[in-house]
Write a structure and sequence with these properties.
- The chain is mostly beta strands.
- Helix content is 0%, strand content 50%.
- It is built from no helices and 10 strands.
- The strands form 2 sheets. A 6-stranded mixed sheet has the order 2-10-9-4-5-6, with no helix packed on it.
Length: 116
């Protein structure tokens, strides 16, 4: 089974930047379109951005123009560059392995906190 490990979260002020990384290991054959999702306290998990193996990307409206997703297929890694962060971006960010991987493939997530 695939294992996902996220890193790069932290505390940043409004307007700041962070770069999240996700490293996949184990059986990575299920990885197709990967992405990032986030869950804020009291809210449901939501998709932030996704990227296919071929590099096609999708962004949720609330991050368009601020976040950039990228992928290194050789390293089985996906990244999320987050700029112009806002307090509303505060959440636990999860590496999303895509629809073909088992539901328990998700990692532990990385906390992103944006102070006013």
């Amino acid at each position: 089974q695939v294992q996902l490990v996220e890193s790069g979260g932290g505390l940043v002020q409004t307007g700041g930047s962070l770069r999240l990384s996700c490293a996949a290991s184990g059986d990575t054959t299920c990885l197709s379109a990967m992405g990032w999702s986030r869950q804020a306290p009291g809210k449901e998990r939501e998709l932030v951005a996704a990227i296919t193996r071929g590099g096609n990307t999708y962004y949720s409206d609330f991050v368009k123009g601020r976040f950039t997703i990228s992928r290194d297929n050789a390293k089985n890694a996906v990244y999320l560059q987050m700029n112009s962060l806002e307090p509303e971006d505060t959440a636990v960010y999860y590496c999303n392995p895509g629809p073909l991987c088992p539901a328990d493939s998700w990692g532990q997530g990385t906390q992103v906190t944006v102070s006013p």
